[in-house]
Write a structure and sequence with these properties.
The chain is of the alpha+beta class. The protein contains six helices and eight strands. The longest helix is centred in the middle third of the chain and has 13 residues, at about 70-85.
């Protein structure tokens, strides 16, 4: 059955693309490289090919993609990463967001592990986490 996850004798995981009499064409989910391996060296793995494909991405990239709800939130994250620690009052001034919308985005990004609350000039503020910074650097 194609589209399944298999593992070879060394424990390497592959996505099975095509199976024939003696060998199978498999794809390494991390590199995309295709190869043919003997069927007797492969055994099925109880995993989704989609989960295996996601595992090939950096953990920071996955956190960014799954934690940012929309383009406004991504823009806020990029702006904070560029500015560094920023007061909430400044965020309200530089965005077109109302206080409630800004608060909602900040909560969502904190819950995703992409923002951290900090004190800036004696006031509440936010900065990007190392996870967010690394993920944004990968996109740039």
């Amino acid at each position: 059955m194609t589209g399944r996850v298999v593992r070879d004798d060394a424990g390497n995981r592959y996505v099975l693309e095509k199976r024939s009499g003696e060998s199978s064409r498999v794809r390494d989910p991390e590199t995309g490289e295709r190869s043919h391996l003997p069927n007797e060296s492969l055994e099925p793995v109880d995993a989704s090919p989609l989960d295996v494909a996601t595992a090939a991405l950096s953990s920071e990239g996955v956190a960014l993609v799954t934690g940012v709800p929309d383009e406004r939130a991504l823009g806020l994250l990029v702006e904070l990463d560029e500015r560094g620690p920023t007061r909430v009052r400044t965020l309200l001034d530089i965005s077109t967001l109302c206080e409630g919308d800004l608060h909602g985005l900040l909560v969502a990004l904190r819950a995703a592990g992409l923002l951290a609350e900090v004190t800036v000039a004696g006031e509440r503020g936010y900065e990007t986490t190392a996870t967010a910074h690394t993920a944004l650097e990968q996109l740039r």
